[in-house]
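From the pipeline queue, job 12 of 40. The input is one protein chain; the requested action is below.

Action: predict structure.
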Amino acid sequence: MSDAYLVRYVGGPLDGRVDTLPGLPDEPRETVTHVHLHGGPKIVHHYDLHYALEYGCEYRLREAEERDLAQD
């Protein structure tokens, strides 16, 4: 039996979330997009892969300046 692969999120609305996958993905996604829908406008957050460790990988909330550049 292989060890579980953990995906951790740091910052923003997903801060502290940990997803458990059955194994290492072939290629971890470079960016994860989280869309928050509610009674107001749609809010989009981008999480970037910063590093992969033995236990899994970590996605960190993209800084505001980086978000603005990515939208251009």
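Job complete. The chain has a mean pLDDT of 83.
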